[in-house]
Amino acid sequence: MTGLTLIPSSGAALPAEPFRARHLIGGAWRDSVDGAVSERRSPAHGVPVSIAAKGGQPDVEAAIAAARATFDAGTWSRASGKDRAALLLGVADLIEREIDRVALIETLESGKPITQAKGEIAGAADLWRYAAALARTMHGDSHNTLGPDMLGLVLKEPIGVAGIICPWNFPFLIVSQKLPFALAAGCTAVVKPSELTPSSTVILGELLQEAGLPAGVVNIVLGYGDPVGAALSTHTDVDMVSFTGSTAVGKRIVAAASGTLKKVSLELGGKNPQVVFPDADLDEAADAITFGVHFNAGECCNSGSRVIVHDDVAEALVARVVALSQKVPFGDPLDPRTQVGAIISPEHLAKIDGYVRDAQAAGAGVALGGAALSPGGLSGQFYQPTIVTDVTPAMPIATEEVFGPVLSVLTFRDTDEAIALANSASYGLSAGVWSRDVSTCLDFARRVQAGTVWTNTWMDGFSELPFGGVKQSGQGRELGRYGLEEYLEVKTVQMRIGATRARWVA
Ligand code: NAD
Question: Ligand 1 in contact with 460 (CB < 6 A)?
Fold first, then answer.
């Protein structure tokens, strides 16, 4: 008896044929030059769901050449903000039209619950709309106080060709945190989705074509980090790389990009703490903590995977989180009731389990879960919603990213200790605080090392608000006005408009 709420196979019909995903290069859909493909199986159902072209050096070279030539031709890079915005708005409408289709393939490739996939696609459509607003309102600066003969202009220009490298956990949302902003700025792009979840990005490519985006503005190359991502990071014709993924690969990209000094923006991992003070509303906190750790099966950069709770309320909070976690429907991601689906790969499942086993061996307790389990009729990989208690700061599970539905519970006695624990990881993506006292919340918000702080809530997100990390969680920001700035270069123009220059040579 697990005490969990299991959702067995829904018996929903799986697609008769795997989705065929190909590269989009210079406006044409292409197989790899060498014909290589890779197959993706549903993490929940174990059957093949897509067959994707597996890009090699010639494919990525061709895509970069198309993006470069298109940028230099100026068709998109010099288009008006009004025209760019009209296109982005059209894409948003098409995404909404295709929500069911995109969500289904995301669920089949990633194992995430279908209801959450639909929410993700709807959120992505909003990002395309928001970026359209930025495209029309973007402007530089003027300096009219440099003296009677001078005028200074600060122009915002597109940085050029953007290489966009995405992970598998929110494939459609994350490409939409980057691409519409790059397009609003006037960039052209080469997009590389994760080899595990290529298909929703391919559907996006189809929608971009339908919306009328000129050929070569967005190119998509499918395949692995090596060679596709690596080529984007080193190539002289790529002006910047925008990467979301693991901290380890982010560091490799920075090293690879140093040869050309191209700009690199990074959205990396997190080990996000939620600090619960004794005056917190424990029912509210418990629900948000349960959501924060089990949403997307914990395969979430923003996973609230680390609770730091005051000793006096630790037992009461853990009891609530265990009870809620038992109620969370766990199983077939195609069943609309499901809230925790499958784990992306067998290797990743083993990694999650390893963290839990090591913590147990080091003296931690397991209040719920702690093992793999496939709900009835499902042949993929699943990990039970898990709560690990009595975690000490020295255990790897306290500071490393588990990326699974596994909550680590640590305790504290005073505020300084709570802040020190919260800041003890090498990451700094997001953090949360639970207290009825606004001063406690504000003090925490000012002292915690994180790019985003939630007070009495968790993982709300808005297209308007910048998102990114400090420390080893990344550099640069996405979303909001800052998300556009990443793709812009600043050019200073100094104009003599009155009398001629004072001569230097007498
Ligand atoms: P990953 O780093 O393994 O892969 C990400 C992408 O990089 C994939 O497309 C992969 O093919 C590519 N890649 C691999 N090696 C490369 C190389 N040498 N050069 C260039 N590209 C290369 O990450 P993942 O497993 O797909 O995703 C999970 C990670 O992403 C987690 O650490 C998670 O925290 C992080 N993430 C961060 C955010 C954020 O916004 N901060 C959001 C989602 C995920």
Answer: no
40, 54, 169, best to mutate for ligand 1 pocket (most atoms within 8 Å of CB): 169
Tokens standing for residue 30: 């292409």
Under 8 Å between Cβ of 49 and 105: yes
- pLDDT tens sequence across 319-357: 999 999 999 999 999 999 999 999 999 999 999 999 999
Q: How far is the CA of 198 from the centre of ligand 1 (A)?
A: 13
For 214, which DSSP code? P
Helix (H) or strand (E) holding 416: helix 415-422
Tell me the domains of the chain and their CATH numbers. 14-268+473-491 (3.40.605.10), 273-455 (3.40.309.10)
Helix-strand-coil percent breakdown of the chain, rounded to 5? 40, 25, 40
CA gap 333, 348 in Å, rounded: 18
Q: Is the peptide bond before 227 cis (omega within 30 degrees of 0)?
A: yes
Task: Report the alpha-carbon distance of residue 304 to residue 309 in Å, rounded.
Answer: 13
User: Within 10 Å of residue 147's Cβ, how many Cβ atoms?
Assistant: 9
Summarize pLDDT for 118-166 with one digit per residue, the tens: 999 999 999 999 999 999 999 999 999 999 999 999 999 999 999 999 9
Here the tokens at position 276 are 């619960």
DSSP secondary-structure letter at 500? P
301 part of the active site: yes
Annotated catalytic residue within 120, 301, 401, 441: 301
Through-space distance between the first and last CA atoms of the chain, rounded to whole angstroms: 95
State if residue 194 touches ligand 1 by the CB under 6 angstroms criterion.
yes
Full 3-state SS string of 256-292: HHCCCCCEEEEECCCCCEEEECCCCCHHHHHHHHHHH
Q: Is-above-0.90 flag for pTM?
A: yes
Distance CA 183, CA 146 (A): 34
Q: Choose among 472, 466, 437, 471: nearest CA to 453.
A: 466
Backbone torsions φ then ψ of 140, nearest 5 degrees: -95, -135
